[in-house]
Amino acid sequence: MNNSWASRNKIKVALSAAIAFGAVGGAWIPASSTVSAAASYETKITYGVNMRVQASAGSDKIRMLKKGEQVHVVGQANAYWLHVLTPRGESGYISSSSQYSTYSGPSGSTGGTTSPGVSSKRDQVVSIAQSYIGRVSYGYGVRNESRLIFDCSSFTQFVYGQAGVSLKWGTSVQKSQGQAVSRANLQKGDLIFFDTVGSNNGVINHVGIYMGNGQFIHNTPSADGVAIHSLTSGWWKDRYVSSRSVI
């Protein structure tokens, strides 16, 4: 058991809550340090453009990005929209038309002319998840997109949804979506499932997203938000149950 657990009484209360909310991904897990990757804001806005909540002209507007602002392009949502992050921590979508930014595509092609492939979509899922470090709060059995409060499985549902991948809410259903993949063959963007209560007897009650290099990202109550942990060492190594590819 990880030494970071506060007290035996707290453990008992947390474990009871984990069992009660296991169907929607609730589970208590040990705290540990969070790692985040700083984005490089490589793309310049060349003409004022609205940043929207979804990749649609009818979606709510977050704000207008002004000429000269720098953004990081996570990827192309489709042929017409780019998913971008701003230095303020905002995540949204802008038109991929070349008149609005200097983005030229992942291989030097004209921005907005191609849809992202499987590899770039996997990168997109991970980048989206990372963009919510420090912004999301954890709540048992909660899915509140407007306030960015989620449990583990509503967070994965939210992240994959922004990348155009439909997931249902709850570890009980996500554990059967897509195709099974072995631990040895994990790829970036795969879902990974854990048993966090007692000894690992294969009862799934927590889910995260594999990032590559033996790390995964997930929404966790111990950090009250999004954190990155190792899958190859420490507490999580022996809690792994299964994984699925949904991309």
TrEMBL record:
Point out the signal peptide segment.
1-37
The NlpC/P60 domain covers 119-247
What's any GO biological process attached to this entry? proteolysis
Q: Name one Pfam family in it.
A: NLPC_P60
Query: According to the lineage, what is the superkingdom?
Result: Bacteria
User: Is Ribosomal protein found in the keyword set?
Assistant: no
Keywords assigned: Hydrolase, Protease, Signal, Thiol protease
Task: Quote the Gene3D superfamilies the UniProt record gives.
Answer: endopeptidase domain like (from Nostoc punctiforme), SH3 Domains
Q: Tell me one GO molecular function of this protein.
A: cysteine-type peptidase activity
| Keyword Protease carried by entry | yes
Q: Which PROSITE patterns match?
A: NLPC_P60
UniProt family annotation: Belongs to the peptidase C40 family.
Query: What's the protein called, per UniProt?
Result: Invasion associated protein p60
Phylogenetic lineage: Bacteria, Bacillati, Bacillota, Bacilli, Bacillales
